[in-house]
């Protein structure tokens, strides 16, 4: 797969996700809803439709494609993951958390609206993600829907993303730096879990065997770890205009990173080794050339500039 082919697929997935989110965040209430307050909906749309690479829904869509699953089921499942990701950004940017004023080249939600509205917009997206997955429109089989809901809840909650954010905040105030093992666990929870569940979604929707699902899971774990190291490198070296957010904040806030523990050179080497681990895991899945796009995604994650 050429870089041009990969970026075309990435752009197509982003456009499809944008269209799905736009439709889901329409002003008309759904059955069982009373009303959709205009300002809250505007803030939710601001957070969810504000651009970005849409890497997570891309991974979900491409993983589902491995098993011939396309269309509404994959699109809605991918959009649900992106709602979780976008809600987490709105909350992470709050003054009580990372206190950022810029996200994707625009004012963060609490700056564009206010803190209370940013919190509620995040709450709305978080809740709506599970609404989308539980809706029969996502899949006719209630067992599949239940598995999707459970997988995302585990990845996004106490033992995953939210728990990782809590550990991250604790580490900023810790008397001693985290060990490498503690840092890896934090990053696997805060960042890696939501990236891993993207490929888990593909396996669930596609009815993958336990062996294939496990191989895809190893791919997701390695990709998530590589993504976090690449993100830390960008924060240390990246250009704020290209990033669309403030650079250098990890060092300012005493964030636990592998760069701080290993240095840039060793961190880059670890990132590259994780990419190779991810690609090898895809080979273990024995799905042939169908996994070429996901292999390229692992390389893209490591070498991205924003």
From TrEMBL:
InterPro entries: Isoprenoid_synthase_dom_sf, Polyprenyl_synt, Polyprenyl_synt_CS, Prenyl_diphosphate_synthase
A single cellular component GO annotation: cytoplasm
Keywords: Isoprene biosynthesis, Magnesium, Metal-binding, Transferase
Disulfide bond found in the keyword field: no
Pfam families assigned to the protein according to its UniProt record, in alphabetical order: polyprenyl_synt (PF00348)
Keyword Lipid metabolism on entry: no
GO biological process terms held by the UniProt record: terpenoid biosynthetic process
Cofactor requirements of the protein: Mg(2+)
Molecular function in Gene Ontology: metal ion binding; prenyltransferase activity
Family to which the UniProt record says this protein belongs: Belongs to the FPP/GGPP synthase family.
Annotated protein name in UniProt: Probable farnesyl diphosphate synthase
């Amino acid at each position: 797969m050429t870089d041009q082919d990969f970026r075309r697929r990435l752009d197509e997935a982003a456009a499809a996700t944008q269209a799905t989110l736009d439709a889901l965040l329409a002003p008309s209430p759904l059955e069982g809803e009373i009303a959709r307050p205009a300002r809250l909906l505007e803030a939710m749309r601001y957070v969810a439709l504000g651009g970005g690479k849409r890497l997570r829904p891309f991974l979900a869509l491409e993983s589902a494609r491995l098993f011939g699953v396309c269309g509404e089921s994959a699109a809605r499942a991918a959009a649900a993951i992106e709602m979780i990701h976008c809600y987490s950004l709105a909350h992470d940017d709050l003054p009580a958390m990372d206190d950022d004023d810029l996200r994707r080249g625009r004012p963060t939600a609490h700056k564009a609206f206010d803190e209370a509205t940013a919190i509620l917009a995040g709450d709305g997206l978080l809740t709506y993600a599970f609404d989308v997955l539980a809706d029969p429109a996502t899949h006719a089989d209630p067992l599949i829907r239940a598995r999707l809901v459970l997988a995302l809840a585990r990845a996004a909650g106490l033992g995953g993303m939210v728990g990782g954010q809590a550990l991250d905040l604790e580490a900023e105030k810790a008397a001693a730096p985290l060990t490498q093992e503690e840092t890896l666990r934090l990053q696997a929870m805060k960042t890696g879990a939501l990236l891993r569940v993207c490929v888990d979604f593909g396996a669930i929707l596609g009815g993958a065997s336990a062996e294939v699902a496990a191989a895809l899971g190893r791919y997701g774990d390695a990709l998530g770890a590589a993504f976090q190291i690449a993100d830390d490198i960008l924060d240390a070296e990246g250009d704020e205009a290209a990033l669309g957010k403030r650079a250098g904040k990890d060092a300012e806030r005493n964030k636990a990173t592998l760069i701080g523990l290993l240095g840039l050179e060793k961190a880059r080497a670890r990132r590259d080794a994780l990419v190779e681990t991810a690609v090898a895991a895809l080979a273990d899945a024995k799905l042939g050339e169908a996994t070429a796009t996901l292999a390229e995604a692992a390389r893209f994650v490591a070498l991205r500039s924003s």
